[in-house]
Amino acid sequence: MSDYSVSQFSTRDSAGPVTCSACGCRLVGLSGLLDGAYRHFPSMKPGQDARGCKPACVGALHDHEGRAMAEAAAA
Q1: What is the pLDDT of residues 11-46, one digit of tens each?
Q2: Which residue of 9, 10, 21, 30 has the fewest C-beta atoms within 10 A of its own C-beta?
Q3: pTM for this prediction
Q4: Could you tell me if 67 and 60 are in contact, meaning their C-beta atoms sit under 8 angstroms apart?
């Protein structure tokens, strides 16, 4: 398997879950509904999500394409 296939994630299926474009972790709607703002599943430990992942965007809100909101605004 190449490094490219491991580090690149496919585009979001509109019927499927929203995943983080940086790390591939599944995201949850901010209010539990599909309201347009998503975040990593919360953890009891600061700086990581519920799976134990520690992406730089763990505390950031994400858009419907899984991009951190600040990153999406800059694009």
Answers
A1: 555 667 889 998 888 898 877 555 678 989 888 888
A2: 10
A3: 0.67
A4: no
